[in-house]
Amino acid sequence: MPPRSRRTDALSRDRIVDAAIDLLDASGADALTFRALGGALDTGSGAIYHHVAGKDELLAAATDAVLRPILAAAAGGDDPRAAIRALALALFDTVDEHPWLAAQVMADPGRPANLLLSERIGGAVLAMGTPEEALFDAATAIVGYVLGSAAQNAANARSPLARSGPSREELLGGVAARIEQLDPDEFPYLRRIAATMADHDDRAQFLAGLDLLLAGIDTL
Questions:
Q1: Is residue 202's pLDDT more than 90?
Q2: What's the CA gap between 83 and 78, in Å, rounded?
Q3: Which DSSP state fits 184?
Q4: What is the tens place of the pLDDT at every residue in 134-144?
Q5: How far is 89 from 94, CA to CA, in rounded Å?
Q6: Which domains, from first to last, does the chain contain?
Q7: pTM
Q8: What's phi and psi for 4, nearest 5 deg?
Q9: For the chain, how many helices (H) and strands (E)?
Q10: What confidence tens digit (pLDDT) does each residue in 61-79 have?
């Protein structure tokens, strides 16, 4: 058997996963193909298959590589509400950096890192004294809120309008100005929140919504 090339010898699962994350960040899950990955790594797809069985395994490994450091950093602490807030904000920021992550977590909750995320959130909800019959609903409501809000925030930041149109401040200011022209009898809610919407901070709004969820869980 001829000796393997240096290029193949240098290839590792970690290198493949890192390159996959770069492709996912740049172009999303649909663009992650073994052909594209081979081009990024200057190797053939066969060499990649030696380390990773297929795209599903690669997506799981990429999700695990991004998610586990967040979960490790958020472990521990005596205040379960503070732990949930810290983990939620870390996820919000991480999904902003890796916009494909939220969909991958929601696509397969049974992946190892996804199970650990559910345990972190659910364990904190349990530590809050939540009744057992409400544990599942409370924990999944938080996970759904966090991932859904984070995914929407990341999508907004990468929309065609955000990339080529006015700044965020100009866009929100323009929407608020139009809202202020609406009939207050027909649109009482929108008229009341127009100024707040124009000046709001996305991360602060995200945490405010999470606090409303936690306050509701406290009443159970």
A1: yes
A2: 8
A3: T
A4: 999 999 999 99
A5: 8
A6: 76-218 (1.10.357.10)
A7: 0.89
A8: -70, 150
A9: 13, 0
A10: 999 999 999 998 877 679 9
